[in-house]
């Protein structure tokens, strides 16, 4: 009994202690802020809440900073670095409790992990941007120009590295490093080329297709590759314990590069050909495989002592550019990287920057020296090679040597693709030649030219939206074009998106952006210009409403008939109606109408509308109740030239070829309201045959209505505006004679 009592007592004691311990080990409260929890308090088991707060603050802050900096044409990375500096200890960190609440030290590894993942993917995109074909095809010039371009900033970087090394080698908290490695890092950082920035500069200067642009891109590719290799060498030298280890690291890295080129890339290309990714674009599985190669490459270079970003860069280099594969992969990845991951990395770099440490004159002198070298080295190269003046001088010399020769009809098409902040559009700039070769729109345009036995060529121009009109005018000048034909956008916007509703088609003429583009082209063009507004010229633009379809269990003739795709029931005949009000634009419209009428399936009606009090030889620009006033051009400064409009009309009528007499009708009308009468006549004559290929109303542009205060509201002229507002059932072609 004496033995059992202590045993029972001990058992009861242990059981009570166990129950007490179990009662204290409770799960964390799940009510969140409803239970009084602080969402900014770091929780190692659930760090996502604080990460969202950190990412949200960084993204919003950087975007707000980017708006004013964008007015100064600064890239978004500047706003991201400045945002990190402002959120760091330099500014916001001085607010008591801010850093401890938003960026506590235990939470920084998670933010750093996501940021470094973004850096790896960004370097993968940088590798995708680099097209080694430029370097291979122009390697002699690229090597010489690239070496000359790197020599000056590299040498100046080596020079300032000595001062930086002596000033900061004894700073507390710094890791000892050899001067040679430090000098190499500073020199490479000074001389490395930002390839996307180079592409954007060449595009804005319109030098992409010139020899200067090709050489610059080739040299930029070489500098980019050499720069990243030298940075990898710096990392290897820093991480290596001694010289022998560094040698082994470099040899292993070289062997890995050869393995990627001769083992991984052929297998990868075979997979892409089997999956038709080069022809049809990468599928989700192929994109996953590509990213896996990038991450695996980053892993290997990281474990051998080189930074993981170099492996991701190499993975991007081996990706093919055939069929636009690199561009399409970039389009699928760049948004997430550029919008989320990369801002976190640059902001994290800024968070580690404390401008308060710049507290003496020597430190500020070093800062000014680094900035001066970065500016001066580039300015000297630009001063030595004045690109724009040289190109314009050569162009003027070619213009003086050109001769006017009669030639058959030639059509040159230009498809405009906007350069945006996206990396993929910058890649399209550097690969514009191949992009033009495989562009489906240009290929369809060329096939159409072959069907109609026309000399047709085309190209894709990747330019900023502000240079669209200037690009077309310059191209027309280079081709010595007689006519620049501009289509009005079907959607009323500058984008290539398809129309979703008929409302955008109905109000497409109200687009301020597209109107500004057309107006700029009309004002700066040196040749004849025509603007085409499509209103069913190749069939109806109305969308067919979606209908319910039923599943057929037995053969149903009606259901099968409903499933057949409707074919547009249009012929190939066209009718042109031209109201002639005089002036150079009107005379050009008459000549163009007669040229179009030479086609056997085209008929035309040309009516000379003049004021009721006008005689045959009177001034076509006199003002009556509703009279057309011809805006004078530089070519119409001779006195009495407008008096010849009626004589010109009579001459065109008398000289009409015999084969056109049955298809072209000349008429004249004297009325107090010429424009209203012209619109009424057009509504009676156009759109009467629903089976033809579409009717066309031809107008001159420089005609305004006397006494109309709103006559200058549209870029096409008030006559065209009134015709389009009348709801006429025909397409409209507005022409402007060369100035």
List keywords for this structure.
CPA2_transporter, Rossmann fold, 11 strands, alpha/beta, 739 residues, seven-stranded mixed sheet, 28 helices
Short description:
Helix content is 56%, strand content 9%. With 739 residues, the chain is an alpha/beta fold. Among the domains are: 39-124 and 341-353, no CATH class; 243-320; 527-540 and 568-739, Rossmann fold (3-Layer(aba) Sandwich), CATH 3.40.50.
Global shape: elongated
CATH hierarchy, class of the domain at 527-540 and 568-739 = Alpha Beta
Biggest β-sheet: strands ordered side by side in the sheet: 3-4-11-9-5-6-8
| End-to-end distance | 124 Å
The poorly predicted ranges are 1-9, 17-23, 380-406, 614-625, 634-641, 706-712
Average pLDDT works out at 77
- Would you give the CATH topology of the domain at 527-540 and 568-739? Rossmann fold
The number of helical segments is 28
Number of β-strand runs? 11
Q: Considering the protein shown, what is the CATH homologous superfamily of the domain at 527-540 and 568-739?
A: HUPs
Question: How much helix is in the residues?
Answer: 55-70%
Rg from alpha-carbon coordinates: 35 Å
Q: In percent terms, what proportion of residues is strand?
A: 5-15%
What can be said about the biggest beta sheet? 7 strands, mixed
Query: Given the helix and strand composition, which structural class is it?
Result: alpha/beta
The CATH architecture assignment of the domain at 527-540 and 568-739 turns out to be 3-Layer(aba) Sandwich
GO cellular component, one term: membrane
Protein name: Cation/H+ exchanger transmembrane domain-containing protein
GO molecular function: antiporter activity
Main location: membrane
